[in-house]
Design goal:
Number of domains: 6
Shape: elongated
Number of helices: 9
Oligomer: single chain
Number of strands: 33
Distance between the termini: 57 Å
Radius of gyration: 38 Å
Strand order of the largest sheet: 6-5-4-9-10-7-8
Helix content: 10-25%
Strand content: 35-45%
Largest sheet: 7 strands, mixed
Structural class: mainly beta
């Protein structure tokens, strides 16, 4: 059984859904045999829909606005692969459509973008008082002719000879379109050799007309990326989705759209997404392009360049995996060697360290350096997993470097390992193809005494905040292998308590050892505030005999936001981190839970 797919109704209609042919309860009559194949194909392809009650209503008239919506579907307005082009069309024609009160600006914009409709057409088919009126047969001839890219039919010097007995009733301006539709088998006469130009087009007839159009569609579509445009030869070269380079010749007849608006082919940048519509004769009818926006960089080892049909390919090797990849140069590429610009690709040497800037997948800039470089700065971050990386800050700029597994490390004049390099160290780096191969570090060493205000136990970046003797607070990185002792006994980070009196040794901005000398154990007390004495700076919890002094406490909320001691109120549920003192407690941190 075929599936049903929910869909929004057309203008003025009830909510519709795609219904399989067999589900239409009003199509069993043999009088609809003439339209049966067309309706089945059009509903299966999602071009025209059935109603929510599983009827097709073949005798219902099609409105002018509905006809435009159906035409846009034939051109792929709802196809995902066209979404960006549709968005560009809407943006390009938003001023034109601002004059019309319609919910179908997306579909109408797409028809204008494709060159099917003009501003004058909107007055006839989308304006208030016109959009909801039934489409007449002569109007359908005009629209179908335009849909088949034959807008020139209306500019014919002489109208065709039509043999219909009611030919005189066909508006003069419509006769060339009717002649085209009839001669190309899109439309037929009615009974008694009449065309019935003023007759209303039914849903069954529209399904048949669209079915005939799709069977005679005059263009094929090629998708790819812009490589180049030769203005002398009027040739556009693209690299299609099979990575095959192809050339197409443009004529004055060809329409060009860049980001939704009329343009010329020489304004399309290399790497742009391109769709080319080609008539059966081989003539390019429409070029659609979207400017490349995605910019990315690739670093590696330059190997060679090679001229190929598509242009110039550059070969770059990964310094870690040795994998080689090829990148195509855009039509215009800025090339630098060191600080010198204006270089050519032929001046680069095998083994140079290169950084490629890509736009739309094509090279727009190459910066090359000798394979061995140096750098210096301050360690800002250390990444341990999935691979060791250092982020070094110099002159306000942060740069992340990969580290060679066999890196040579010296710190404070001694040979050591990466494990001794900490955040805050000053470093001098030797780089080969951007990877650190040797590192010299120096640390500003200091010893600080104070009390613990906050501990963040994070496997990637543990931190500790110390309130020093002058009451200032400083946050330091905590080395994962920091040496910790408590009352002269070896301990770990989980043995640390808020309020502990500590002596810490710091290298750079990282704590490398902590000595806890506090006597007695801190306490964590949970409870509800019974009352607050602001004069003496203490609080009383329900069911707790001891008072808790809070004048020196840091106050936070459960969500991590910062509070003040004065924010504590009777009835608050709190957690107090305290140190015992003379039969009471002095809080170092209070968390307000409610």
């Amino acid at each position: 059984m075929k599936k049903k797919i929910a869909l929004v109704a057309l203008c003025g209609c009830m909510i519709l859904q795609q219904a399989a042919w067999a589900a239409f309860t009003d199509m069993g009559d043999t009088r609809w045999d003439w339209a049966r194949t067309a309706i089945e194909n059009m509903t299966d392809s999602g071009i025209i829909k059935g109603y929510g009650d599983n009827t097709f209503k073949p005798e219902n008239s099609v409105s002018k606005i509905e006809s435009l919506i159906l035409m846009s579907r034939v051109l792929g307005v709802d196809e995902t692969k066209n979404a960006k082009y549709v968005s560009a069309a809407v943006e390009a024609h938003k001023t034109d459509l601002a004059l019309y009160n319609t919910a179908y600006k997306r579909e109408i914009s797409y028809l204008m973008y494709k060159g099917i409709l003009t501003k004058d057409d909107l007055k006839l088919y989308a304006a208030d008082g016109e959009a909801g009126t039934p489409l007449k047969r002569y109007e359908s001839a005009i629209l179908l002719t335009k849909l088949l890219w034959n807008n020139d039919a209306g500019t014919s010097a002489s109208a065709p000879t039509l043999s219909f007995t009611d030919a005189a009733d066909i508006p003069a301006a419509a006769k060339p379109y009717v002649g085209f539709a009839v001669s190309n088998g899109l439309m037929n006469g009615m009974d008694e050799n009449m065309f019935n130009p003023m007759g209303e087009v039914t849903r069954a007839q529209m399904a048949t007309l669209l079915y005939r159009v799709m069977g005679n569609f005059p263009v094929t579509v090629v998708r790819g990326n812009m490589v180049s445009y030769d203005s002398a030869k009027q040739e556009i070269r693209i690299q299609d989705t099979d990575n095959t380079s192809k050339v197409y010749t443009l004529t004055t007849k060809a329409l060009v759209r860049l980001d939704g608006t009329a343009a010329t082919a020489n304004t399309i940048a290399a790497g742009a997404d391109v769709i080319i519509s080609i008539e059966k004769s081989g003539t390019v009818r429409l070029v659609e392009a979207l400017s490349p926006t995605a910019v990315e960089t690739v670093s590696g080892i330059y190997s060679k360049y090679q001229n190929v049909t598509e242009g110039t390919q550059v070969y770059v090797r990964d310094p870690i995996t040795s994998e080689t990849k090829q990148y195509l140069m855009a039509g215009s590429v800025a090339i630098y060697k060191g600080s010198s610009g204006g270089r050519t690709i032929a001046e680069l040497q095998d083994g140079d360290a290169v950084t490629l800037t890509l736009q739309g997948g094509k090279i727009i800039e190459i910066r090359a350096e000798d394979k061995k470089q140096t750098a210096s700065g301050t360690v800002e971050d250390i990444q341990l997993l999935p691979e060791y990386k250092l982020t070094v800050k110099a002159g306000g700029t942060s740069t992340e470097y990969a580290v060679d597994p066999n890196v040579e490390v010296r710190k404070n004049g001694k040979t050591t390992s990466l494990a001794d390099v900490v955040v805050g160290d000053s470093v001098s780096l030797t780089l080969v193809y951007g990877v650190i191969t040797s590192l010299t570090a120096t640390s500003r060493q200091q010893t600080v005494e104070g009390s613990i205000v906050q501990i963040v136990v994070d496997t990637e970046d543990p931190r500790i905040t110390i309130r020093e003797k002058d009451s200032t607070e400083h946050e330091y990185h905590l080395k994962n292998t920091a040496e910790i002792t408590r009352n002269a006994t070896a301990a770990d980070v989980y043995a640390l308590r808020l309020g502990d009196k500590v002596t810490v040794k710091i290298e750079g901005s990282t704590v490398v050892s902590i000595s806890v000398s506090a006597v007695g154990e801190n306490s964590t007390i949970n409870g509800v505030v019974e009352y607050v004495n602001t004069s003496y700076g203490y609080i009383k919890l329900e069911g707790v005999n001891e008072l808790i002094f809070v004048t020196k406490a840091k106050v936070t909320y459960k969500d991590g936001s910062t509070g003040m001691v004065r924010n504590i109120q009777a009835g608050d549920d709190i957690t107090a981190f305290c140190a015992p003192t003379n039969g009471s407690y002095e809080a170092t941190l209070i968390v307000i839970n409610s």
